[in-house]
From TrEMBL:
The keyword Lipid metabolism appears for this protein: no
Record bears the keyword Kinase: no
Gene3D superfamilies: NAD(P)-binding Rossmann-like Domain
Family of this protein: Belongs to the D-isomer specific 2-hydroxyacid dehydrogenase family.
Name of the gene encoding the protein in the UniProt record: ldhD
Name of the protein in its database record: LdhD protein
EC number of this enzyme: 1.1.1.28
Key words, A-Z: NAD, Oxidoreductase
Pfam families, per the entry: 2-Hacid_dh, 2-Hacid_dh_C
InterPro entries: D-isomer_2_OHA_DH_cat_dom, D-isomer_DH_CS1, D-isomer_DH_NAD-bd, D-LDH-like, NAD(P)-bd_dom_sf
Length: 329
């Protein structure tokens, strides 16, 4: 069995080598995206990709013509794949829905604490040799109310961490979890936005979540409130967010993902700057914004799981079995 993995990073090498040693599967790796590896399709049995730009529609026919039966992404999000078109060409699609809920939850917790402690403002002042305390009084987390929108695997893990620290945890989800009784108080989105000191987003990207938070939602939030987005960029209306931050409707925001990040994150822009994405350039320049380059997931355990689960799924499909992570729609 021979599997092609594209967009492979250096930090994945050890996990891939360990998988080969354990299973005997031959894995061909490329740092380039799938589009740059089409000449290798005829020589492999399976394909695993990881990228942020949407796969060109013409590639599905090429995969099928090469005799491939599947395409996998070693990420939770699979919006880069045109699933119906893949199915039309006889390609089964899998993702890695859970590689480490703890990794993203811990990142969100860190950012919640940073917002409560106003570290964005502290860092700015110290960088400018301003060591005054004025306006920096923080809120201890056990006295804070944290709202989680999307209380699934990641949101639920975050809720447990917050509850252990004594925070009041509100949740909004279309499918409330009984196992979080006593940890999460479920309520409406409006009530959650109005009451929370920090709101943390952990929703999938789909038709119902695009623009989930916009001008109307920001107007409901307390002017002292913060917002964390460790889900997907398009769930926030970026233009409305910038306005809310500029006008004081929101105190601060921590963004690990933002619309337009595809050409910005995981790329060195020290020379050319961020002019290609004006909204990200504006956010970067704001003193009440904490930007991280989509690294909430990026831990030792998560990387290992992403590699292992994706490869396991390919083997299942190629052996005529069913993967529990197959995308049906």
């Amino acid at each position: 069995m021979k599997i092609l993995m594209t967009s492979v990073r250096d930090d994945e090498a050890a996990a891939i080598a360990a998988y080969t040693a354990r299973t005997g599967v031959e894995i061909i790796t490329s740092a380039a995206p799938l589009e740059a590896n089409l000449d290798q399709l005829a020589a492999v049995d399976g394909v695993i990709m990881q990228q942020r730009n949407r796969l060109a529609d013409a590639i599905y026919a090429q995969l099928a013509e090469a005799g491939l039966k599947q395409i996998s992404t070693r990420t939770a999000g699979y919006d880069v794949i045109n699933v119906p078109l893949a199915h039309e060409h006889g390609l089964r699609v899998t993702n890695v829905p859970v590689y480490s809920p703890r990794s993203v939850a811990e990142h969100a917790l860190m950012q919640i604490l940073r917002l409560l402690r106003k570290s964005y403002e502290v860092d700015q002042r110290v960088a400018n040799n301003d060591y005054r305390w004025g306006g920096l009084q923080a809120k201890e987390i056990h006295s804070a109310t944290i709202g989680i929108i999307g209380v699934g695997r990641i949101g639920g893990t975050l809720a447990k961490l917050l509850a252990a620290l004594g925070a009041t945890v509100l949740g909004y989800d279309v499918n409330p979890r009984d196992d979080l009784a006593g940890i999460v108080t479920y309520t409406t989105k409006t009530d959650l936005l109005q009451r929370s000191d920090v709101v943390s987003l952990h929703v999938d990207l789909n038709e119902t979540s695009i623009g989930l938070l916009g001008a109307a939602e920001f107007a409901l939030m307390q002017p002292t409130a913060g917002l964390v987005n460790a889900s997907r960029g398009p769930v926030i209306d970026t233009t409305a967010l910038i306005t809310a931050l500029e006008t004081g409707e929101l105190a601060g925001v921590a963004l690990d993902t933002v619309s337009g990040e595809e050409t910005i994150f995981n790329v060195d822009h020290q020379e050319d700057g961020l002019t290609s994405q004006p909204d990200i350039e504006k956010l970067h320049a704001m003193s009440n914004v904490i930007l991280t380059p989509h690294i909430a997931f990026f831990t030792n355990i998560a990387v290992q799981n992403m590699v292992d689960i994706a490869l396991d799924d390919v083997q299942l499909i190629l052996n005529g079995e069913t993967s529990p992570h197959e995308i049906e729609r």
